[in-house]
Write a structure and sequence with these properties.
With 396 residues, the chain is an alpha/beta fold. The protein is 39% helix and 18% strand. It contains 13 helices and 17 strands. Helix 4 packs parallel to helix 10. The longest helix has 20 residues.
Length: 396
Amino acid sequence: MELTQKVKNIQEKWDANFMKTYAQIPVVMDKGEGATITDIDGKKYVDFTSGIGVSSLGYGHKGLVEAIQYQAAKLLHSSNIFFNQPHVEAGAKLIALSGYDKVFFCNSGTEANEGAMKIARKYSDLKYGGDRGTILSLNKSFHGRTMASLMATGKEAYHKYFYPLPTGYKYVEKNDIEAFREALKDETICAFIFEAVQGEGGVYPIDKDFIEEAVKLCQEKDIVVICDEVQAGMGRTGKLFGFQEFDIKPDLVTMAKGLAGGIPVGGILADEKVSDVLVPGDHGTTFGGNALAMAAANVVLDELAKPEFLADVAKKGDYIMDTVKSWGLDEIVEVRGKGLMIGIEIKGSASEIEKVAAQKGLLILTAGEHVIRLLPPLVISMDEINKGLEILKECL
């Protein structure tokens, strides 16, 4: 990719000042509208990434922009020692939509998962004593980058270099109910955490029969069930949460990413069994429930409350998957996913396709060496979908 001087200048400043934590494609984003982003040189890109599932309402959404502008002028932040109205309103909306008992707002998905694991461990400690604190998760899962959620992530490659690591974590193969049953013989297990669709692990929807039986086994042993909906939640799969495809209700649900359309927000939903476990002093976060973030979350939640909005997400997701399958390309191994959370497994390098697509005006993601991951804004238009698919087909 030939770089303009503007891009070279930005890249030089980055290299001089930032840690090397990202392997960026040399594109400098400037502005967006709908599901289309424009870079600093004026080139337009169809966005099939939404900032890794964050920009759920796309770019320039009128209601979201107005809410953020209004709240920024009024009050950005106040301590949780006091109430603020957007915080209270967003919580009430989420409880009404989800059918859960209580909610806690934080700042990110990894923080939400750590908070949920704290709830599970305290619940178990109060009821069974301190010897029951092991968290069970699935191989190829991803639950975050901070130390405890890193250990809940079922990928050894993520654990390398960070020893000594927190203890109290075990892993089992997804969709293997006999292996799961065997794992539950460990009497120290207090919680099971899973994703309805494994995003970073390759965009694998969890098997219905497996997860329904696994949750049943956990309920029999009073093991707290945590569903990580950080990527699959907030309408991404065509339902409010991905687990709603199944006949289950987790005890705890974690969320983040698309909840506020681009402003950092995370959250934990708790059912009646565990909703009163935490008391003042047990947990908290300085920025959780921040007035600006909650003003944005209220706009997203209003959209998610519309049945036709979620139905449209499911319809667009089916269209994309059906279209890709119809190409009949030898390069494509499998197309899988739910709603607008789609994985295209290919024979070649997904990262190479990602780079070529950017050159041609399409932004996509990867999920491992051979999986192209698509997470478009939930509001993406059919024109943008078709334009993006044309480019993707050409790249493949």
